[in-house]
DNA sequence: TCGATGCTGATATAATATAACGATCGGCCA
DNA sequence: TGGCCGATCGTTATATTATATCAGCATCGA
């Protein structure tokens, strides 16, 4: 059971994650569930040591390996992604979001992630554009390269920050 | 002047880099030239502290900021790229390679990089696929996102390693 | 000459990630 | 039942990557 109270939305996503793991014969332990919950609640890329701090509020003994091991598991299962440019982690909404039920993607084992990272507000929006994926797959094939894990990251300004910056050049964040 | 002897190929690339900087009004100082030379000679992604070690053979006093400042400059000028997945740096062949004279790409200020990273032999091949670029630009536009720096990294097996692995599963490297 | 700017030297420290070893828990099967 | 085994986690220590800060020095233009 969770020591911390997560939002009901997060809890539903955790239950989905649980089901996914069950189906695959892997175990979403309390600790892993806790870490995944923290990542999901953050709603933005969050660093391992930030997670560690939060984890410690309900788990005094946690140390770096505690959170890194949990993250390794979650990455392996495709439940979270790492944003390389930020050395930070985000939940994979395509796996866990109820709104995305019918998107048809199967992320299991593909380990591919595409992000639009806003340097204004720090958000990272996961896109999963089939045409980017296809172009990359084609280029790899031409090179005789067999891709295993693929990272696509664009850093720039989201629409809100871009509008805000146009209005007042010193703007740092929106909502 | 270089303290270390670089290959004549590297020297030619350094001269090109010098010309590029001159054209832009930036300065490829001895130190920066030295660091760029080390990156180019490596011929594969190389970590900042590896560079530091090499730099120290001819420059006893070098410290981390020495190499990071040089790398920041080189990144800004598009003369090297950072491979995020490896926290390592490679020369941008499209800027510096004589063979690529007529490729028509203008990388200046675009800060985009696409790599095929082989986990077998540690090579990182820069591709610069226009269709990947176009797909990404289109996806960003649809999201109202203005990309500034773009990273595309596929980790997997290059053709040589893939062949070697098929032949003898324990293989680690080719040539 | 003066100040502004850009580059480097040098020390210290922050931030991110892993190694290594032992303890515990559960399942599995002789 | 008892013992083995693999998976998970606790704990300490350390490795790796990156930045902050301040001082010195050169260059350039006013």
From TrEMBL, chains A, B:
InterPro entries in the cross-refs: FUR, Fur_C, WH-like_DNA-bd_sf, WH_DNA-bd_sf
Pfam families xrefs? FUR (PF01475)
The record, for Gene3D superfamilies, names: 3.30.1490.190, Winged helix-like DNA-binding domain superfamily/Winged helix DNA-binding domain
Q: Kindly indicate whether the keyword Transcription belongs to this entry.
A: yes
Which top-level group of life is the source organism from? Bacteria
Keyword Secreted tagged: no
Keywords, alphabetical: DNA-binding, Repressor, Transcription, Transcription regulation, Zinc
Q: Which SUPFAM superfamilies match?
A: Winged helix' DNA-binding domain (SSF46785)
- Give the family from UniProt: Belongs to the Fur family.
Task: Tell me the protein's name.
Answer: Transcriptional repressor
